[in-house]
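Let's practice the habit of predicting before peeking. Look at the sequence and jot down your guess about where helices and strands might fall. Then scroll down.
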Amino acid sequence: MKILKFGGKSLTYGDGFEKSVEIILEKIRNDEKIAVVVSAIANATDELEQILEKAAKNEIYLEQLDTFKKYQQSNFSVDLSEEFRLLEKTFEGVALLGDYSKKIKDNVLAQGEVISAKMVTQALKDKGINANFSDTRLLIKTDGKFGDAQPLEQVSKKNVINHFKTNNGTTVNIVTGFIGSNINNDTTTLGRNGSNYTASLIANYLDAEELQNYTHVDGIYTANPDLVLDAKKIDQLSFNEANELANFGATILHAKTIIPLLEKNIPLRILNTFNHENQGTLITSAADTAGIKSLSVLENVSLVNLEGRGLLGKTGIDARIFKVMGDHDISVSIISQGSSERGIGIVVAADKASKAIIELEKEFENDFYSKDVNKISVTDNVSVISIIGQDLSTFHKPYTALIKNKIVPILFNNTVTGKNVSLVVHKSQLYKALNVIHGEIFGVSKKINIAIFGHGVVGGTLISQILTSAESIEKRKAIKLNIFAIANSKKVLLNKNGITSNWETEIQNNGISYTIEDIIAFANEHHLENLIAIDNTASSTFVENYIPLAESSFDLISSNKTANTLSYDFYKKIRKSLADNQKNYLYETNVGAGLPLIDTIKLLHHSGENITKIKGVFSGTLSYLFNHFSSEDRPFSEVLQEAINKGFTEPDPRDDLSGNDVGRKLLILARELDLQNEFDEVNIQNLIPDKLINGDKSDFLNRLTEMDAEYQAIKENQKPNHVLRYIGELSGDLQQQKGNLEVKLVSVPVDTALGQLKGSDSFFEIYTESYGDRPIVIQGAGAGSAVTARGVFGDILRLSEKG
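Done guessing? Here is the structure:
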């Protein structure tokens, strides 16, 4: 017999639940003898705990309970009235008392698994399968420790064997995970992730051929793929190696799961419900194989430090520490000598750190008087990275790589075997540290999956640049750029393996209509990692897609300025979504095309530098126009027509001459300084005479000469040796909520940096408190499709190389 265990994500209604049922049906059709252990559906356990907390605090919970019931019932005709009635009465009682016991909590949380097993049972019956709901509260007998009960092996084994003798043959037993009952028949739970434990116990009692654990990933990885995007699946592990992973935070395994399987030499296979053709990771009793297997992470921990001159070499300190921890039920995952202090560090669960400090201070009270101990402190927001299979003799390689990346571990230790090394790092450095170590150890290419929206002049140039450079970038940087989607306003071309140089023909012939949800679904369906969405449109509506893209694990890059210049509320809404989903948004080309302007301002601002003023020529188009008009004896209309002919202007040149584009760019920089200005607060000098503002484009183009007299007069009325420049200026007290934003035509001396500007270059002066009246100057090509596309390309590589 094989035991199949399905986790909560595998049982989420819709794609997950249906796929899980189909996997079970396929096993039955292949005449495999199976039993199925289920977790609660989706996030049922967390939801029930939330409702319980609300009831205890006398907060409104009925709406959430009603939502819970509707979701759990779904469209099935299963009678859940008993479970729902129990929950309703329990929550009502807890609300009246304002508190609940661990016993009550176990009874509430157990309903998630009971409901799940009933739903799976009914789904199979609807398919003509003889399925039997098996409640482990009648089978697994435990001690009386609510919340983390331990099974009573002899009676539990006897109950399970007898149950399966009675319900065998053509019957498929659907077994509740996570729960049992004590000798008084009170419901107990086996601890969080206890459904895995239930499955391994059932496998042990029944001498199963194999335990298959269905999850939402393809197996055990060289690192958590959510944290390390180029992590690779491990095909096979030994039980010892898997146990190390479990002990050091691999959440896909429950630490207690391994022992019942090891006792009977029962293989464990980790499989993906959503990709069940994949063979997953097989865990057996085979001997450990040489080499590093995986990086594992412990989060939600704190480091407790004991420091003092008397600690080094003093006997009995460790024993006293462990006695304090044991007496107060505080588990210690790591204890180690600090690398730079005469002290001892221990890693404990974050929610136990305060208790640990209090009790250790009591224990070492006399040592404070003797000054053997001078400080007991806690460092919060730390994480533990464990390198499973790391030999201490070669540990210098990943350690050196960390130091080169300015990541200094707070402490480290190794196991007795010397084959596993653990590092404690600041949580803010965890992601980077994992990637540094993983890259050093496994040396695999990171795959970057890119969706490009807008394939006009800039977008098309970017695609060509990526396709031309992709091979060399992979060789030089171990980064594989894969464009899986190209979209315009009507059609999208999708290819999980990447588009080819023939993409223009393919999108015309094979492109399909789409919504943003279709592209997100495609990425999910094909398990595409490290996603980047690039907005090369000029659309004011496409930016509404930024938030759903961020929520679906896409980082964002944009040459479209719209998102950063809409209302400040929308600006903050996008950034909140990005923060909530830990996604990046780069838009260096929004101002200055390929110039490193936004990055420079961000760096200065975030480092605490007080920026006092920013001014410059923001438009490459208007730079070209006034640079040539000021220095050449030609009519304004002639120079403007030349700019139009060279493709420097927008299709309707009034979009440039209105000054709105410069105003938007100036607003973007203001918001980088955390100013809350709105676009209508930018004072913009419109360069278009009133008589030419309205009317269609062709009429305007035919009347360009009507602007000549006005601009010739402006030119001639300047002081000697002065030239015209159209600038944006941000000034005022920039430490307040709003600054002064002005876009205007000015006359400047020809011998100044601004006066010497040539061609279509952009020019920016950044004034700061530290630099005084000597500004930081950034100058260069500020327009052109190739320059803008190259700037977007730079943003792609910046995201790709982020630790």
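How did you do? The chain has four domains: 2-42+118-284, 294-442, 446-580, 597-783.
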